[in-house]
Amino acid sequence: MPRCRRGYIHIVNNDFTQWQMYAIDGSANHTINSQGNRYIAPSNPDAKEV
């Protein structure tokens, strides 16, 4: 899954289902532009929700 650190990412038209830890993540002065994506949280209780 996408992860951004100290940068800019533009994520367009993706289907995020069944992720293990996160769907999209960022740290340390990041910018994430998420556009037209679908997020469905998995049933795993350890996975972070949107």
Summarize it.
The protein is mainly β. Helix content is 0%, strand content 44%.
List the helices and strands and how they pair.
Blueprint: E1 3-5, E2 8-12, E3 15-17, E4 25-27, E5 31-35, E6 38-40
Parallel strand pairs: 1-4, 2-5, 3-6
Number-wise, the strands total 6
For the report, how would you describe the main beta sheet?
A: 2 strands, parallel
**How many angstroms does the end-to-end distance come to?**
14 Å
Order of strands across the biggest sheet?
1-4
Count of structural domains? 1
Beta fraction of the residues? 35-45%
Taking all residues together, what is the mean pLDDT? 84
What pattern of helices and strands is seen along the backbone? EEEEEE
Structural class: mainly beta
Helix segment tally: 0
Helix content: under 10%
Shape: flat
Oligomer: single chain
Radius of gyration: 11 Å
Low-confidence stretches: none
Explain the overall architecture:
This protein is mostly beta strands and 50 residues long. It has one domain (3-40). The chain is 0% helix and 44% strand. The chain starts with a strand and ends in a 10-residue tail after the last strand. The mean pLDDT is 84.
Main attributes?
Pectin_lyas_fold; 0% helix; two-stranded parallel ribbon; 50 residues; mainly beta; Pectin_lyase_fold/virulence; flat
